[in-house]
Design a protein that fits this description.
Layout lengths: L1 H27 L6 H15 L4 E5 L5 H29 L6 H9 L1 H5 L4 E5 L7
Antiparallel strand pairs: 1-2
Helix pairs in contact: 1-2, 1-3, 3-4
Length: about 130
């Protein structure tokens, strides 16, 4: 079932959200200071490309640097990516078949706003390793 949802997701909104994350990642990697943020954008972009079967968990070893980084991320790229998820989520919820995909889009909003200090893992092992 998750493969079918992932394929439908990819066609309807996953590819476009992936491109948004790649664009944000490339723009953030222009400076040396932005490279960690760009890597986070690429990591979340892969998750946005194929989200079913994966989940986001908190990293217990994340410290104050993650918190400061999340504030910078929120200002630089987080708001724009979250708006993209909100818009595509509402558009997907207009159809009956798109409702689960819209809900999945809404679930991506927290990680798009504050990605540092989180890890993406398969749903069959939702614990930090």
């Amino acid at each position: 079932m998750k493969t079918i949802l992932n394929v439908i997701w990819l066609v309807l909104c996953g590819f476009w959200m992936f491109l948004a994350y790649v664009l944000a990642g490339v723009l953030l990697c222009v400076t040396i200071i932005g490279i960690p943020f760009g890597l986070a954008a690429f990591r979340i972009g892969l998750y946005a490309l194929w989200p079913f079967g994966y989940t986001v968990v908190e990293r217990p070893d994340a410290g104050a640097a993650s918190c400061i980084g999340n504030v910078l991320w929120l200002i630089l790229a987080g708001w724009w990516l979250a708006i993209g998820h909100i818009v595509t989520g509402f558009m997907l919820c207009l159809t009956i078949i798109g409702i689960p995909l819209g809900i999945a889009n809404f679930k991506l909003i927290p990680v798009s706003l504050l990605p540092l200090g989180k890890q993406i893992v398969p749903t069959d092992q939702p614990f930090y390793q």
